[in-house]
UniProtKB/TrEMBL annotation:
Keywords tagged on the record: Disulfide bond, Immunoglobulin domain
Domain Ig-like: 3-81, 105-185
Keyword Disulfide bond set for record: yes
Domain Caspase family p20 as annotated: residue spans: 216-260
GO term, biological process aspect, one: proteolysis
Gene Ontology molecular function: any one: cysteine-type endopeptidase activity
Name of the featured protein: MALT1 protein
Gene3D superfamilies in the record: 3.40.50.1460, Immunoglobulins
Entry-linked InterPro entries: Caspase-like_dom_sf, Caspase-related_regulators, Ig-like_dom, Ig-like_dom_sf, Ig-like_fold, Ig_sub, Ig_sub2, Pept_C14_caspase
Length: 260
């Protein structure tokens, strides 16, 4: 005779900084005694976690992985919990969290202002930490964008009507937090101008990174301008300098960081 195993508490996905310690929880009920075994998956490789046979799995976050728990009874019946994602932000330290962090959303990446040509793709991105992992909702001009519920907002072919002020709300059971609002202008192609009046294309950023990696003296100068005389203040440059500084130091560079 065997009875059903009922999972009464599923583990939850989280989004945390590297080094953060927490527990994944799983609870189940049955008419017999139960045994627990946790598994993890990283880069499509799934493996059993040695010694992880308790209801709670204690974790110190090191890398992004998926986890599930198997519960079996004395009759060899078994069920698996939901797969959950532990998203680990490698370049974010615990020092950026509020002192008494309860798991409420913390924005770590804000979208940036853009000028997009008609017909070209429009992509906005944000990121937030939280326990549970936050859900996302994008807005344009204060109106909900029904189908934009991910960290990345993607519009394949931008139209003039897609212009406006965008922002995203990250929320979980502990509360909500909003990104900065950014203005997006979608228009016809314009003639190129001198100077640095347009956003730096991704391939140029990749080239800059390659130049850093090939530098023989291994010295990097990072300049992040956060305040402009004729432009709204930005948040991204400070974060970019911080993250690039950590990365370059790991690659053996001497780093000089200048802000404003």
């Amino acid at each position: 005779f065997s009875a059903a195993i009922v999972i009464t508490e599923q583990p939850i996905s989280v989004s945390v900084p590297v080094g953060y310690s927490f527990a994944l929880r799983c609870r189940a009920e049955a008419c017999t005694s139960l045994q627990y075994q946790w598994f993890c998956q990283h880069q499509s490789v799934c493996c059993q976690i040695p010694g992880a046979t308790e209801q709670d799995l204690l974790i110190t976050a090191q890398q992004t992985q998926l986890y599930t728990c198997r519960i079996n009874d004395i009759y060899k019946n078994a069920v698996f919990s939901n797969w959950v994602k532990v998203e680990v932000h490698q370049c974010i330290g615990r020092g950026l969290l509020p002192q008494l962090w309860r798991g409420e959303p913390v924005i770590i990446l804000n979208p940036i202002e853009q000028k997009v040509e008609v017909g070209k793709p429009l992509q906005l991105q944000c990121a937030a930490m939280g326990v549970p992992a936050p859900s996302f909702q994008w807005y344009r001009n204060g109106n909900v964008l029904e189908h934009q519920k991910k960290k990345k907002l993607w519009i394949n072919h931008a139209k003039v009507s897609d212009s406006g002020t965008y922002l995203c709300c990250a929320s979980n059971s502990h509360g909500e937090h909003w990104t900065n609002a950014v203005d997006i202008h979608v228009g016809e192609p314009s003639q190129p101008t001198s100077g640095f009046n347009t956003l730096i294309p991704a391939e140029h950023l990749q080239f800059c990174c390659l130049v850093f990696l090939l530098a023989t003296d291994k010295i990097a100068l990072l300049v992040g301008n956060n305040h402009y005389q004729h432009h709204p203040n930005l948040m991204a440059p400070v974060t970019d300098v911080f993250e690039l500084s950590l990365l370059l130091k790991q690659l053996g560079f001497q780093v000089v960081s200048l802000l404003d």
